[in-house]
UniProtKB/TrEMBL annotation:
NCBIfam families: RND_mfp. Residues 67-205 form the Multidrug resistance protein MdtA-like barrel-sandwich hybrid domain. InterPro entries: MdtA-like_BSH, RND_pump_MFP. It comes from the Bacteria. This is RND family efflux transporter, MFP subunit. Keywords: Signal. Residues 1-29 form the signal peptide. GO terms for molecular function: efflux transmembrane transporter activity. It comes from Rheinheimera pacifica. One of its GO terms (cellular component) is efflux pump complex.
């Protein structure tokens, strides 16, 4: 009888054991499945930095002043200065061209003779006037100006002034046979040679003023507010680098903003001035550190210092929000204020604390509270940005 009951209980016992085993297997499978669907997310630790805003712009160096130099008198060229060649630098006041003075020296001599004659006649007129005054001393009050030789004396004085003016004109024309560099200049074009006959007013060369250079720097509208203080003061300094030789670095000063916006790019036009680009004042323009007209330069306009900001990769910013990983390894969105965008980074402020973890890789559809497996990123945004 006992054996019968025991055999009858075997199926029941087996059913209970199978049920327990199945329940245990399902529980383990659920835990394993949950662990399996926890996504791995890389992060980096956030730390506030101070970021110096630098607005970069590029432009072509051009002469501050350009002159078409012309001869003021006509004549045959008999001398050209050795440095009066295209591409060379000449100092201010250098006689770069001489015309044959033969046609201008005789007028000087003739004018000098006329002046001497006029002065002699003036002295004679003065003596005659003195004699007349002596002869008419008893009736000076009633004597006519003609009797006192007043008009004759005035005419003689006028002839002296006229002769003197003619002499000055003759000397001026003679001096103008020497064509002088009006400023320290780079010769851009040369239109004359020895033996050539030129007319008065004919252009002999095109000069670039080498004492100053300017560069027009297009600045985007969104960058303009960051250099507003720089553009207030003419003494503001701008760092300029030659893109063809980055060892050549000079300091420019802010000159102003052109009174129009470039139509094609919709950018403001900032003007910077570089003193002595050819370094003529230091080594006569032969230095390797000189900046040549036509060079393409990179300018750095200093903006404000953004203090206690966080550098965030742009692709991690979504509608002014970033994703952080909290202490429970859960995703949490945080709204931030964007202060500045530069290349691949944005600089933000917000309710962020140093040491918080910024999620750099995210699930396809991140939500607040999503559990993740946090793994520290090898590459740091802060080290890549170069901020302190």
């Amino acid at each position: 009888m006992k054996l019968y009951y025991f055999k009858s209980a075997i199926p029941i016992i087996m059913s209970v054991l199978v049920s327990v085993w199945l329940h245990s297997s399902n529980s383990n499978a659920t835990v394993t499945a949950k662990d399996k669907f926890v996504q791995q997310v890389t992060f980096e630790t956030l730390n506030a930095v101070d970021h110096q805003v630098i607005v970069k712009a590029w432009g072509q160096l051009e002469p501050w002043q350009q002159t078409s130099l012309a001869s003021q008198v006509a004549g045959r060229v008999e001398y050209v200065h050795p440095d009066f060649e295209i591409g060379k630098v000449v100092q201010a006041g250098t006689i770069i061209l001489k015309l044959d003075p033969a046609d201008y020296e005789p007028p000087v001599a003739a004018a000098a003779a006329e002046l001497a004659l006029a002065e002699a006649q003036y002295l004679e007129a003065m003596a005659t006037a003195d004699v007349a005054r002596v002869q008419l001393r008893d009736r000076l009050d009633t004597a006519s100006p003609l009797a006192l030789r007043v008009p004759q004396l005035a005419a003689a004085k006028a002839r002296v002034d006229s002769a003197n003016a003619a002499l000055q004109i003759a000397k001026r024309d003679l001096a103008r046979t020497n064509v002088v560099a009006p400023y320290t200049a780079v010769i851009r074009e040369l239109n004359v040679g020895v033996g050539q006959v030129i007319a008065s007013g004919e252009s002999v060369a095109t000069l670039f003023n080498a004492t100053k250079a300017r560069v027009i720097l297009p600045v985007a509208m969104y960058d303009a507010p960051f250099i507003a203080n720089t553009m207030k003061y003419s003494s503001s300094e701008i760092r300029v680098t030659d893109t063809s030789n980055r060892n050549v670095v000079r300091t420019a000063r802010f000159e102003g903003v052109l009174a129009y916006v470039e139509q094609r790019t919709r950018m403001q036009q900032v003007v910077a001035i570089i003193e002595d680009p050819y370094l003529v004042e230091t080594d006569n323009g032969f230095s390797e550190a000189r900046l040549k007209f036509g060079s393409f330069v990179e300018a750095e306009l200093q903006g404000p210092l953004l203090q206690n900001v966080y550098a965030i990769p742009q692709h991690l910013l979504d509608d002014n929000k970033i994703w952080l990983i909290n202490e429970e390894d859960q995703l949490q969105s945080r709204e931030v204020e964007v202060l500045r965008e530069e290349q691949e980074l944005v600089y933000v402020r917000g309710k962020i604390n140093d040491g918080e973890r910024l999620a750099k890789t995210l699930p396809d559809y991140p939500t607040n509270g999503t559990r993740v497996k946090a793994v520290k990123s090898i590459v740091s945004t802060h080290s890549a940005s170069g901020d302190l």
